[in-house]
UniProtKB/TrEMBL annotation, chain A:
PROSITE patterns referenced in this protein's UniProt entry, alphabetically: ABC_TM1
Primary residence: membrane
Subcellular location field: Cell membrane
Domain of life: Bacteria
GO biological process annotation, one example: transmembrane transport
Name of the protein described by the UniProt record: L-arabinose transport system permease protein AraQ
ABC transmembrane type-1 domain ranges (all copies): 147-336
Organism: Sinorhizobium fredii (strain USDA 257)
Any one of the GO CC terms: plasma membrane
This protein's UniProt keywords: Cell membrane, Membrane, Transmembrane, Transmembrane helix, Transport
PANTHER family: ABC TRANSPORTER PERMEASE PROTEIN MG189-RELATED, ABC TRANSPORTER PERMEASE PROTEIN MG189-RELATED-RELATED
Gene encoding the protein: araQ3
Database matches in InterPro entries: MetI-like, MetI-like_sf
Topological relation to the membrane, as annotated: Multi-pass membrane protein
TrEMBL record, chain B:
Record keywords, A-Z: Cell membrane, Membrane, Transmembrane, Transmembrane helix, Transport
GO biological process, one term: transmembrane transport
Family note: Belongs to the binding-protein-dependent transport system permease family.
GO annotation, cellular component aspect: plasma membrane
Entry's localization field: Cell membrane
Protein name: Putative ABC transporter permease protein YurN
Organism in which the protein naturally occurs: Sinorhizobium fredii (strain USDA 257)
Amino acid sequence: MSRIAAFIFRRKGRNGWHWTDIVTWIWLVGGLFIMFGPAVWLVGSSFKSPAALAEFPPTILPYVTQKATVDGYDKPLDLYDVTLPDGNKAVLAEVRRIGVISQMVDPEKPGEIIKVNIAQRKPVRTMAFATTNYTEPFIHFDFVRYLWNSVFVTVTATLITLVVNSMAAFALSKYEFRGRSFAMLLILATLMVPLSVIMVPLYSIVSALGLFNNLWGVILPTVATPTGVFILRQYMLTIPDELIDAARMDKASEWQIYWRIVLPLTAPALAVLAIFSVVWRWNDFLWPLIVLSRKELYTLQVGLSIYSGELNVQWHFILAMTVVTMIPVVLVFIFLQRFITTGIAGTGLK
Amino acid sequence: MKAETPRPTGSGFGEAIMIPVRLAMGLIDAPLRWVQRKLGLGGMAAFFLLPNMLIFGIFVLLPFFINFAYSMTGGTALFLDDRTFVGTDQYVRLFDCSNYLDPNSCTEDTFWTAVGNTAWFVVLQVTLMILFSLVTALILNRELMARSFWRAVFFFPVLLSPVVVGLIWKWILQRQGLLNFALYGFGFQPYTWLNDRNWAFAAAVGVSIWAHMGFYTLILLAGLQAIPKDLYEAAEMDGTRPARAFWRITLPLLMPNLLVVIVLVLIRAVQIFDEVYVLTGGGPGTSTLYLTQYIYETGFATQLRNPGLAAAASILMGVVLIVLTLIQLGLGRSSEKNGSRK
């Protein structure tokens, strides 16, 4: 036990805490709150009813005020714990409020109105998760359509990226031909051309090809990513050429060599690229925003931003949909965290 | 041959997926053998390169060159053949300014507002980003319990989409939000932060740091871990104080990584758009209007769109980015040289 304690409180100073130990733990715990806190707050808020969302100060957990149907009143009334002037406590239902005076009735004796100062009452609340925030967008909005569009774009773009990039990487790593270094240079040079620089002409090219308002217009410009070619080529260079020569002697076609020998051996690099492609394409925003102007083609990201920009922001739906949008990326993160973080540090991916 | 082919050991699920794929591949293989007979080995290289180069050429290279043509034309028409040649008019219009520090004195006042905002944003964001990610990397490099957990904590926001990042913070910074709640505990009155020009700008800087810091922390951490431990042990034996060891050992040896990070942060800061667009929409007023949003709105969003002007502005931005990239490539080369000298 003491060894565990010693491990946990391992610190620099031999006698007591060195100031760097204190800074370290303040930084780490502060970081935990600042980095995870906002996302946790988002998830917690997404289960609140619209009334609870409008409340200030907000509560950490979702609560709703209990209501009761009282004879003689059409709508259910809010219930309050009230401290009466004589010091007794009672549960009363509020009929209306005028200034600081609330007119209340006892649900048991609905005839008699009791006037209570609002400082003397507290709402009766129970914890309740507003799961309708999640279910209603599925029924009433185009949410399912957005989700489908996002999944389609992400999956298709990733598959094409893997095939097309690995073919190019194979050519650039396993063949000697004139212009090989030129092709490589061209690809490397455009690593740095961001979309924001070419978006005006790209838009007209996509329109000219008839891909405006078409999911393929979102997919195609992103699939020939130079980063992918670069990573895969670096990896394929480590595959011994003797393996390929042996296959050729066995009369394997070049396509078979690529498909049966090189691709399986490149699996680790393909996996890294696949993960990144999924995250990039799922998160894409500016380009889909430009290409897609018909509502039924929106991806989740575009749909969400359009909804949240409207005048009557329905935060309870927006928050729930944001959480759903986060889920795939969080899953990728949880399962592949170690893999991703070391992978990035090693390759310097963008 | 078949038995000798090395295969990664896959799961049964993976194998099941592969069966139809293999069947399809068998069907593809026969015509490709015919192609190979026609083209020869050298031709197959071109065959493998073609799909990527075709897509790349159409959607990256071609637009890159057309951009110059666009920037020399005027009007609101979309296609180049419908547009009139105006020479350098668009550039002249962008630079028509009596005082560059005062956007109101310019013909394209929003452009210069965006330039000014972007410049400020870059200065503030890059400084703070480097500072925070360096401190975080130094701390994560210490002997910590559950280091990979802490690394994950700081990396997590990197994977979130800009829209999600923007919405999370819009939700926290609004009037009934978490920030006001936290400050309320200290006796402050609720405030609509994003309706205040200065606070909205600060929020844009802060949120973009929050979203991307983990990435740069990781690169710096990798650099720190590459520094040999015995250097520090030797320094300790000589009685060197930790602060001196930091300036004399850590910082010089981390410099190549640090320079790359600085340039990467710069390149990304110049292009800032998504998170801020969702967070503030460029407002209030024009206080968080940045260059990419200016290009987007001039080119696509407004009624009186002017693709030529947007193209000219994007070329100016491209020039800045290319200069930064060349610096980065130069830095990469010089750090390689340093590495080989060791």
